[in-house]
């Protein structure tokens, strides 16, 4: 395959070395060119002068396009810089013998250029301006916040319901929304839908990843779908986001009414202190203090602390930032936020529970539901398939092991000691244990991300590990689309290859070109799987891989792991995945990791007996 140097020499054999060096220097920065037209803008004028009108503008454009294509190919496959010999190599003896000879062979021909110096200067200025514009564009892209498409909802309004709500006579805690649509950008998630929720019932919302389950809940919580104003709604996210907020403060923030009142109080006091008050601040402050007293805002920190303590958070842990917690602890934090808000919800429940008229309404609703027509069976969707590539050579044991490994973050708090673990390409191992027991730390020791304080980690020289983190979303660039994500991570392949890789995990069509931040939790997990498997690892270490995945995808994941010819170690709380995949169970507790021969059934019996002794059963 010809390089741009070959094309330049072939098309312009009379080019002098000065211009040759200039043009090749421009093309050496070819990673910045986006198409052949940009190459023409940079050097087309110079080439036109070099050709001495022997080539027209179209010819020059074609040559620039050829050089652009070879340029991109060289950058994709790791081009090597061409070495250009500008002066002949002459031995010292030859130099001495010809020292006084001024023959024709030793004379240097003056390199006169036929190029207009002004045109050359103009081309250089244009190239410099192009680089500056590109750098400015990249810096703006990095600094500016990502603007995502937002979900929207519309529904048919009922004049009767509006009149009842305005009159204050509607005190039913049932929710009925008719003929509503929910969209995300240009994509319609729900159309002409109806939703009926009877107070006191428990509902489960199921469906494939990306069909709009979370979006529907957000539309209800934000009241984009009209819900009677006297009904209080608490939206518990899939997982509390990890940031610099303390655990206790995160729970307190779930009470939005208290937070808004405290914020307003702070603002009003600041106005009074600055002397910018208009006289109404004192009146409003009095109203705020009355409301804060009504909701017992001063007792909120103590109540939040008691709830966290009941879920296993020590006083020290309550002051830790949410980003320091593992996935299991973040889920406990989400539960604490729900329990903290339950006091206000319970007021409505109790008011409803002991009202005889309301109880009669419930019975009539139940009878009405019994008379409804039988639901049609759900149409079965296409089967989800996942595939982990295994086109690698078989490795001979030992593959991966820890010998007498000791580890701690602080010498006064030893986390592990005497760890002796081994795995090979036949391994199907699951690590279980309480939240915070160190399961993720064991995985990082196995991968070599953490260095043992004592003992040895041994790994095969050809071992290639694919790691799926329980906080995989934090490792994805949310500002780019899935195709660009793979391009940045694994450059040098075609767009078709990236799309094919993503398509193997259900990210197809326009999903692959949407910003990763706009995808659902399950879709982000699929993108993370596609990224993990792209380099074809021969060993997978998976930390809570089923988070956010639907049931069909979990089954597909189990099938893919069983077909995979390499080794697998995973941390999971999903009993079904453990039973489908794992042949060996490791329990992480009390600074040790031990194997349970009886598998998951024996582990469940151990937990059952432990809960019985502690009085939970």
TrEMBL record:
<dbReference type="GO" id="GO:0016887">
    <property type="term" value="F:ATP hydrolysis activity"/>
</dbReference>
<feature type="compositionally biased region" description="Basic and acidic residues">
    <location>
        <begin position="125"/>
        <end position="140"/>
    </location>
</feature>
<dbReference type="InterPro" id="IPR003439">
    <property type="entry name" value="ABC_transporter-like_ATP-bd"/>
</dbReference>
<dbReference type="Pfam" id="PF00005">
    <property type="entry name" value="ABC_tran"/>
</dbReference>
<dbReference type="InterPro" id="IPR017871">
    <property type="entry name" value="ABC_transporter-like_CS"/>
</dbReference>
<keyword id="KW-0007">Acetylation</keyword>
<dbReference type="Pfam" id="PF26051">
    <property type="entry name" value="PWI_ABCF3"/>
</dbReference>
<dbReference type="InterPro" id="IPR058770">
    <property type="entry name" value="PWI_ABCF3"/>
</dbReference>
<dbReference type="GO" id="GO:0005524">
    <property type="term" value="F:ATP binding"/>
</dbReference>
<dbReference type="InterPro" id="IPR027417">
    <property type="entry name" value="P-loop_NTPase"/>
</dbReference>
<feature type="compositionally biased region" description="Basic and acidic residues">
    <location>
        <begin position="158"/>
        <end position="168"/>
    </location>
</feature>
<feature type="domain" description="ABC transporter">
    <location>
        <begin position="400"/>
        <end position="615"/>
    </location>
</feature>
<dbReference type="InterPro" id="IPR003593">
    <property type="entry name" value="AAA+_ATPase"/>
</dbReference>
<keyword id="KW-0067">ATP-binding</keyword>
<dbReference type="InterPro" id="IPR050611">
    <property type="entry name" value="ABCF"/>
</dbReference>
<keyword id="KW-0547">Nucleotide-binding</keyword>
<keyword id="KW-0677">Repeat</keyword>
<feature type="region of interest" description="Disordered">
    <location>
        <begin position="125"/>
        <end position="168"/>
    </location>
</feature>
<feature type="domain" description="ABC transporter">
    <location>
        <begin position="175"/>
        <end position="408"/>
    </location>
</feature>
<protein>
    <submittedName>
        <fullName>ATP-binding cassette sub-family F member 3</fullName>
    </submittedName>
</protein>
<comment type="similarity">
    <text>Belongs to the ABC transporter superfamily. ABCF family. EF3 subfamily.</text>
</comment>
